[in-house]
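**User:**
If convenient, please work through this fold.
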Amino acid sequence: MTTETTATTSGATESPAMRMMGLLYGSVVGRLVSIVAEFGVADLCADGPRGVDELAADTDADPDTLYRMLRALAAAGVFTEVAPRTFALTDLGTTLRSEVPGSMRDHARNWGSAEYLHTLIGLGGALRTGRPSFDTHHGVDWWSYLAAHPRRAQVFDRAMGNRARQIAAAVLAVCDLSGVRRLVDVGGGQGHLVAAVLDRYPGIEAVVLDRPEVVAGAAAVVGGRATAVGGDFFAAVPPGADRYVLSSVLHDWADDDAVTILRRIREAMDPAGRLLVVETVLPEGDEPHLGKLLDVLMLALVGGRERTEREYAALLDRADLRIEEIVPTATPVGVLVAAPA
């Protein structure tokens, strides 16, 4: 048994027990981030430092409780206490503002929802059964739940829109789509990725495919620049594209379902077509990676999973596809370029 210690800011060493305490308390930080995102505190600090009493009045919050929460978040680098009981945003905290590049506000609100919290609480049951804890708690799967709760679906869709815009920027920084004639974004949500593609390559004929209730919001994002198709990617995808895209889709599904999606795309692909799979590619072994935590959430929420390169290669092989290359991005996701086998 090892007894490694790490240096603290005071120059002393931190024992393994104290490091473990930090991990356990990390869940409190995440919850606080979600709460201040819900209350819109970062937006109220957009023009400069604000006193706690002002912030409390603007958010209908208890001043002492708000102060203690902001003090804890300042210790985590989200805010900074520039004067007694007066707080300003840090670069990290700025991501909790609405409608700024890289905004994480909707993502934080989604993470702090009762549905996500119950799902994480139920992980112990998932460990015993291997089944998503969301299904066990709610009696239905995640996608059916969203279809029955439109207001909750709106929060989720906004969060996924945040993520899609960030991923699109990272992908377009490393992938050259010049010469692409027709692109189909399979499971493309409300079209945020396609909108970013068309901003850079306006001549591409683009199609967004998703569930009818989801893709209905695409008109507000892509306007008349792309075709929005309501459908089921387990049944069929639009044919004839030279580029298909699956961005943050396969990780929602267990292997057999993921292979079915890939087979539908393979059936629609031209021989010279390519599929761009935009997903987290997990490193082997102990290497730290955000995707290893996301993998557990996928298990608990929808029964999906993040995968390694070898696991993606095996999925693609079952669908008569092969990996040509993997292009890393500046984010945790990579782009797996797949061709017909």
Notes: The radius of gyration is 22 Å. The chain is about 50% helix and 20% strand. The first helix runs from residue 16 to 39.
